[in-house]
Design brief:
The chain is an alpha+beta fold. Helix content is about 35%, strand content about 15%. The strands form five sheets. Strands 5, 9, 10, 11, 12, 13, 14, 15 and 16 form a nine-stranded mixed sheet that branches. A three-stranded antiparallel sheet has the order 6-8-7, with no helix packed on it. β9 (about 190-195) and β10 (about 200-205) form a beta hairpin. The radius of gyration is 26 Å and the shape is globular.
Length: about 500
């Protein structure tokens, strides 16, 4: 709403015979102008409408717009409004109306939905009930994420790598199914993620009293089958840490012509295999004063859990006056990948998936689990936003449907990986029929990785008006700027970084 001021103009004297006045007639200001880029991308890949098709509202069809509800929630989370209560104000914001594709609604001054209506969407069930009239087709949502990945490629690649990982979702209440996880040292859920590069292919919310690989076979089987229906000749390589080096998953890969590369937990038998290499690395490190590593390639099997002998590559490293051995197990042959190349160039590349998980948790609030039960968590909206995040970085070479200039939103992985959030784009303006109410708490930029100096945002113009300084209606326009990071936001980033740094090591 406009700021209530006792005076419309303030006189600050004169300079060189010219009056210096401050007025509140410059129009309304918003920090959410980057949402226009989200809207353009959505038009190119038709994500919101396709995701909305996964829902079925059993109320009166002439009075509901599921696509508007889905788009409002997706764009809201992408812009930093993770709480449903934010939409009691956002429903009056013309920017959200622009994203929804309409500037007027059935209620006066409200073009979009409020928190109660959006809550019904998030609490949807696979089958409608008396109190939950919106049903969600979960299999259709899973299929959509893989379809977005496939459509982002103009032609089939020769090989793809599927990164699997489990992470913690801390709980701060007494949610149903919560368990204490010793590794993460907190009560949490244990969601499973599957990525291919920057593309999210699966996200499953799970309890924490299970093995990290629980359900991985079913997810990989579903994803591989869908990919091979489109790309029959592509080579697929699942890659994960030692939590996924399980007989069931490796046996499935071997039976279905799928390669794999998993970390392998250290034990006494494995350590004994590399005693000679580790001694050589220690001697080299003490002589040079620098860390040294040696590699060994051998066939190995467990005492009882594995059904066959498999190739194991060991890294015998001596660093900081102590041993740092690591092991991986793979189906790739020695001619396809040597020991050093397999570990350093192929396996260690999975660390980039940690940044994708950070993006989901820090930018898209995938760790917001405030409902009383796992079924009540807004999983659908989180998965949708994760898919939107991946789609924004991998839009296929297709022109916008409504673009008259013939421009293309191109699939450009290096630049897409650098440009994290649409909310961080500056100097964007648009003319609409009425003034836009200022709103916005934080930018949608990711804090996962530093961007190049050339990609950083330009400094704010002198005298720019903060989004919280609301003015009287006047000249219509939208101006964006970057807000400072809040202390709570910074604390969330530091906590997530500490958890992720404990999880991963070479």
């Amino acid at each position: 709403m406009p700021t209530e001021c006792s005076a419309e103009r303030f006189d600050f004297g004169s300079v060189a015979g010219r009056a210096v006045e401050a007025a509140f007639d410059a129009g309304l200001v918003t920090s959410d102008a980057g949402a226009l880029l989200l809207r353009a991308t959505d038009r190119a890949i038709d994500l919101v409408d396709r995701f909305a098709a996964c829902f079925r509202d059993h109320r009166r069809q002439e009075l509901i717009e599921v696509s508007t509800l889905v788009g409002q929630r997706v764009f809201g989370i992408a812009l930093g409004y993770e709480d449903l209560i934010d939409h009691d104000e956002l429903r009056h914001d013309p920017m959200m109306a622009v994203l929804a594709g309409k500037l007027a609604g059935r209620r006066k001054g409200c073009a979009t939905a409020g928190k109660a209506t959006l809550n019904r969407l998030e609490l949807s069930r696979p089958e409608p009930s008396r109190y939950h009239r919106i049903a969600c087709n979960e299999s259709a949502v899973e299929t959509l994420l893989v379809d977005l990945f496939l459509e982002a490629h103009a032609r089939p690649p020769g090989q793809i790598v599927l990164d699997l990982d489990a992470t913690d979702d801390p709980l701060y209440g007494h949610q149903e199914g919560r368990f204490f996880h010793g590794y993460y040292d907190c009560y949490c859920y244990l969601p499973l993620y599957v990525f291919c590069g920057r593309h999210l292919l699966a996200a499953k919310l799970r309890r924490a009293n299970i093995d990290a690989s629980a359900g991985a076979v079913q997810e990989i089987a579903r994803i591989v089958a869908q990919i091979r229906r489109r790309w029959a000749r592509v080579r697929i390589l699942p890659r994960a840490d030692s939590g996924f080096a399980r007989e069931e998953l490796m046996a499935w890969c071997e039976q279905n012509r799928v390669d794999y590369l998993f970390g392998l937990a250290r034990n006494r038998r494995l350590a004994a295999e590399i005693e000679t290499e580790l001694a050589c690395a220690q001697a080299a490190a003490e002589q040079s004063g620098e860390p040294a590593r040696r590699f060994k390639d051998f066939m190995w099997t467990t005492l009882g859990s594995w059904s066959r002998r498999r190739r194991v590559v060991a890294k015998a490293e001596w660093t900081q006056d102590e041993a740092n051995p690591r092991f991986v197990v793979t189906s790739l042959t020695r001619t396809e990948a040597g020991a050093r190349h397999l570990y350093e160039d192929i396996y260690c590349a999975r660390s980039d998936m940690e940044n994708r998980i950070k993006e989901c948790q820090l930018d898209l609030y995938a760790d917001r689990t405030s409902a009383a039960t796992p079924a009540g968590e807004p999983v659908a909206a989180v998965v949708c936003c994760d898919g939107l995040c991946a789609a924004l970085r991998a839009t296929p070479n297709r022109p916008c449907r409504d673009c008259s200039c013939g421009c293309h939103l191109r699939h450009h992985p290096p630049q897409a990986a650098e440009d994290r959030g649409a909310g961080a784009q500056n100097n964007i303006s648009i003319e609409i029929s009425r003034a836009v109410r200022p709103h916005g708490r934080r930018s949608g930029r990711s804090q996962c990785e530093p961007r190049r100096s050339a990609d950083r945002d330009p400094p704010a113009a002198p005298g720019s008006v903060p989004s919280r300084c609301r003015s009287a209606p006047g000249a219509a326009g939208i101006r964006s700027h970057q807000l400072p990071r809040s202390p709570a936001r910074a604390a969330r980033i530091r906590a997530c970084t500490r958890r992720q740094s404990r999880r991963f090591g070479h």
